[in-house]
Specification:
Blueprint lengths: L1 H30 L11 H15 L2 H23 L4 H26 L17 H4 L1 H19 L6 H14 L1 H20 L2
């Protein structure tokens, strides 16, 4: 419940900071107090803001947040419901989840850590490479697979639809963070535009 009270305050502060930044950039540009300051309140500033808004918000960081929220939803939904299952079913579910985890780790190792692996860079390095750019989504997908198998085997998830609902629940639980992210990243991009 703290999030419900804190989120509007933080978003309000970011909106006020955005307005102050727009006015400050206009003032500094108009008075020539800082030579390299660009103003948000100009044709160039408005064009920049409108042209880059979706690009700024739709960053790889947002994709990572969504993947992490989906993984969190699956992990958080499978465990409590599975605790009501008989211990023999939980043991079987744990073993199956461990097998899936090992399969995921072997697949990741084959894709990234053997010579000439598919996810290495053109020069054969891990950083930067397709592997490094997909690191968070890969591990989130592994976590989702392990939790889904555990949940299905323990009957915490009765169908694939329950697994999908857990993804949606994870994203819903992260929605305050996603809202805050949108305003924070727009403010950060505006700062970079003004003082670049």
């Amino acid at each position: 419940m703290k999030t419900e009270r804190l989120l509007p305050i933080l978003v309000g502060l970011l909106l006020v900071a955005q307005a102050v930044l727009a006015l400050l950039s206009w003032f500094l540009s108009a008075t020539s107090m800082a030579g390299s300051v660009r103003t948000l309140i100009s044709a160039e500033g408005v064009r920049w803001f409108c042209a880059t808004l979706t690009h700024v918000v739709g960053s790889p960081f947002l994709a990572c947040l969504i993947f992490m929220a989906m993984a969190w939803g699956t992990l958080s939904r499978c465990r409590p419901a599975a605790q009501h299952a008989p211990s023999s079913r939980r043991r079987l579910a744990s073993r199956l989840a461990l097998v899936v985890l090992l399969i995921c780790l072997v697949l990741i190792a084959m894709l990234a850590f053997v010579p000439h692996a598919m996810l290495l860079s053109a020069t054969g390095h891990l950083w930067p490479s397709p592997f490094s750019r997909a690191l968070v989504p890969l591990f989130c997908i592994c976590a989702i697979a392990v939790a889904a198998v555990y949940g299905r085997a323990s009957r915490a998830f009765l169908s694939f639809a329950d697994v999908v609902r857990s993804w949606a629940a994870g994203v819903a639980s992260a929605s305050p963070l996603l809202v805050l992210y949108v305003f924070a990243v727009v403010f950060y991009a505006s700062l970079r535009f003004v003082f670049q």
